[in-house]
Amino acid sequence: MSNSAELNELHWLLAIVQSIDVGVVVLDRDYRVEVWNTFMENRSGLHPDKARGVTFFTLFPEVDEDWFRRKVESVMTLGTPSFTIWEQRPYLLRFKNYQPITGLEDFMYQNTTLLPLKGTSGSIDQVCLIIYDVTDVAVNRRQLQAANAELQRLSSTDRLTGLYNRGHWEEMLRLEYARHRRYDSQAALVMFDIDHFKAINDSYGHQAGDGVIQQVADLIRENLRDSDVAGRYGGEEFVVLLPDTDKQGALIFAERLRQAVELREIRHEQHRIRFTISLGVADLSVPTSSHAQLIEWADSGLYASKAGGRNRVTLYQH
């Protein structure tokens, strides 16, 4: 190749490096900047004349120096490229995000590549850092993950109360029953409903009824432990699964909830509405054939509370 052709090729390569929409930085063995392309100038605000000859860590003090040195030394020693991706490290250099579409994030997500550069002698004396702006990809992925999480939440929760719906809490009960069968762990189930709920709807309207249901859901949440599972059985009926809890602990929880509901008053228009609940409690202290049997036992306790005058807790007697 003639000198003229070589000069043309070099000119073209330099033009490409300057205009390409990725960051290109060449560092020597002392981490001093030798090449600083237009992307880097625009994102950092530093003219190449201000960057060349300056150490990388002076220009970017936010970089984890020990980690970056290990990466570069590995590239130079082995002569093989190295990579980082935004999922593991959101960015190497904290550049602001100026893309209006992805303005939800204030920094640029980045993938990076470190390439060993061989000189004419065949030795590796420089490394090339390439920075890719993947903010669009990252933000889209995060939005998709958030949307999927919200869909999952909606598919497992009851819209009115925010408690788990029947499909989800019954699956949680099935898993807890399987744990009980394997490890002989304890668990209890509390089932209850709102007393005279039809009369509330008939007297004050369905909006008032919905308000009562939401108040009950709030009171359940106020009394739950992190490990407990609360759900809506349907209509005005609820369940609470209490893992690692015997019948005495479940009775204490149920009575505390009953008292909290009895003291609660909601206002609807000009009306003040008070209400009570009736509860049934069952646990796994005796052999059961399935998780469904625990539901049946708690339901029987609830029925006994209704028959006994309501606004009370009844432990299912085996």
UniProtKB/TrEMBL annotation:
InterPro entries: Diguanylate_Cyclase, GGDEF_dom, Nucleotide_cyclase, PAS, PAS-like_dom_sf, PAS_4, Rev_trsase/Diguanyl_cyclase. It is an enzyme of class 2 (transferase). One of its GO terms (cellular component) is plasma membrane. SMART domains: GGDEF, PAS. One of its GO terms (molecular function) is diguanylate cyclase activity. Residues 185-318 form the GGDEF domain. Keywords: Kinase, Transferase. GO terms for biological process: cell adhesion involved in single-species biofilm formation; negative regulation of bacterial-type flagellum-dependent cell motility. Its cofactor is Mg(2+). PANTHER family: DIGUANYLATE CYCLASE DGCM-RELATED, REGULATORY COMPONENTS OF SENSORY TRANSDUCTION SYSTEM. This is diguanylate cyclase. It comes from Stutzerimonas stutzeri (Pseudomonas stutzeri). The lineage of its organism: Bacteria, Pseudomonadati, Pseudomonadota, Gammaproteobacteria, Pseudomonadales.
